[in-house]
Amino acid sequence: MTSVPILRTLRGDSEQICSDCGGVRRKFYRRHPFPVPGLASKGLWLTTDCRCVADARRVRREELTAATRVTASDPLPPALQNHDFVSFSTGPHNKQAYQYAFKFVQGFNKLRDGKGLLFYGRSGSGKTHLACAVANALKTKHRVAFAYVPSLLDQLRAQEVDLHRLLSADLLVLDDLGSERPTDWSLEKLLIIVDGRLNEYRPTVFTTNYPLEELEKRLGMRLASRIIGTNLRILVQGNDYRLQQSGFRQPR
Ligand SMILES: Nc1ncnc2c1ncn2[C@@H]1O[C@H](COP(=O)(O)OP(=O)(O)OP(=O)(O)O)[C@@H](O)[C@H]1O
Ligand SMILES: [Mg+2]
Ligand SMILES: [Zn+2]
Hints:
The chain has 9 helices and 8 strands. It has helices at 51-67, 95-106, 127-138, 149-157, 163-168, 184-199, 212-219, 221-230, 241-245, and strands at 4-8, 26-32, 44-49, 117-120, 144-148, 171-175, 204-208, 232-235.
């Protein structure tokens, strides 16, 4: 079968010429698995970005990787070590999420089924904060590990991951699941971590800002069904706390 990439413009404004490098800022393609004109509406959307957009993304990724690097003295990256229950303000929208997280900590010693937590909800709603509140509350008495999933995927690709540390921790936090589409190979490794922990009844706390239905598309059914099916799903509601603090008015 031939694959036919067809250049298309999406919604008129999508193909801007970048004023910095002169390249197309966002190029949209449709890749058709076979050349059938009648199927022009089907096929897979692909995008490529100009050098500046790709560079900016790489810089942002490197910043996040640095910010989420874990040192030997604490299982959590420095910026997340102060995320605790006390500093988390609650209201009607997030009280239940807070309570589930708190109850998980209280019951941790008696936990036998390996059932962890899956925080989902929109960006800035406090998912990472709550996941870290759990980890910070448990880290003195238990072996806790933390991984920012996009960096973890990079490290897995580069074979720089101490799998044993992630598999054997009493609690593992996997932050920001689904924000990067993993390669089949890194997906397989992620599955080894998630599955390996489940088999030993070791709980994992996940965060994602993807709707759960979408996780399956991004992670594949084998991984997504384990994560969604075996953990307590907690919707963290509310506006973007970061924007709120900066005084930015958000649509309801
Ligand atoms: N209810 C809250 N009380 C106090 N601080 C909060 C609360 N919710 C969020 N924050 C703070 O706002 C910032 C963003 O929160 P956080 O990183 O937990 O969001 P998130 O849901 O993980 O977002 P993303 O999906 O973008 O990763 C953090 O500095 C966090 O400490
Ligand atoms: Mg987060
Ligand atoms: Zn450019």
